[in-house]
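Input record (one chain):
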Amino acid sequence: PCPSGFVGNGDDGCVSVDPCSVGMHSCDVNALCRATSGTGHTCECMVSYVGTGQHCGVDSDLDGYPDSRLPCQASACLQDNCPAIPNSGQEDQTGVGIGNTC
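The corresponding structure, as predicted from the sequence alone:
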């Protein structure tokens, strides 16, 4: 038998399976899956979404921050402090969680 992520009968050899085409990936439903070498893959959030690829959220103002916090630790998972107006630096001089541009 072939190891996980590969197909074939084992006697004649095994070939890797594209994890994106068979649903064996960790990408969010709003992400594009791209196969890499072997059985690897990468995930990239679609346009108007942002996050890690495994977690993607709506980005209404397209500034690189999701409208709502995502369940991950990367900076791309932090909630936009002004979701209706682009502010890619997330400046907040008052420290109240609302961006300066709002």
